[in-house]
Amino acid sequence: MSSQDIPEENLPAARDTGHGAVKVADEEHPFADPGLPPHEHRVQDIDERAAKRSERTVALLFTLSMLATIGFIASFVAIPVEKIVYIFPLGHVSALNVALGVTLGVALFAIGAGAVHWARTLMSDEELTDERHPIEAPSEVRSKIMDDFRQGAKESQLGRRKLIRTTMFGALTLVPLSGVVLLRELGPLPENKLRHTLWSKGKLLVNMNTDEPLRPSDLITGSLTFAKPEGLEEHDHGFQNEIAKAALMLVRIRPDDIKDKRTMEWGHEGILAYSKICTHVGCPVSLYEQQTHHVLCPCHQSTFDLADGARVIFGPAGHPLPQLRIGVNDEGYLEALGDFDEPVGPAFWERG
Fold first, then answer.
1. C-alpha–C-alpha distance, residues 308 and 266, integer Å
2. What is the DSSP letter of 321?
3. Cα 267 to the chain's mean position, in Å?
4. Cα 169 to chain centroid, rounded
5. Is 188 left (phi over 0), alpha (psi -120 to 50) or beta?
């Protein structure tokens, strides 16, 4: 039914609010502003004991967040990375990952739950209306905003509820420590651990397949062989970490085909030793083309010329494969004459 169908005697007098809206409908303004329903007080508004119970609940949640954050840090320090546990229905999972996930989740959830419970039970819940105004804020509006802010701060009872204030600040202070602990392990510290490998003067070159020391006669021209340092065994603790830096690639090239004098001097009778770790993102380089003396990384097609100091001739790699200087000991075995000339693998912040 439209307003025109309503008998005129039944239409109440219209009352203009001053902003184009009316409290009571009429023919010109058929849709009235119903206004806000009457405010209903919560039990905490009228019973201080209920308010105290809510305060203790909020403080308990904030305290739980602090304890969970401490548990997060303790788990990170105390639980070994390799520890595996069985948890139904997840199966066998990393104990460290589970502990970190649970403690951090509880810490964040407790802060959020405490803030929500605080707002719903103790902060003022009386609805206020404000008419629309131009985008430009006059001075009286800015003054009103500051007054509203001060009023909101007063109604939040932050100054009055010291227990909530103290525990909230404690929870918000401790939670960022979780991120600090995680940042500690995002990358290597500026030390020399990426600049050195197990290779050193006198270390024998051991065949990765046969686990036997290599002699020059074991390598034929055009061959590609992978080697590891003497004393590094697959069953050793930390084998993967060490071989990721020390993996060696041996090729034998006719001396006349070697283009760089330094490359020749660091080899032995055409046998050249290079890091097997690609300098792009660390993939193992293994695809060798003996006619061109090029080796290809299968991950992103970086190509290196082994006859010319393993310089990059194609692909995203940023620098050549590091070369290992080798020689032959008194027993006729190939040995290292030092460590790699450059840090192996991809670039890193502290690399000069």
1. 12
2. P
3. 42
4. 25
5. beta
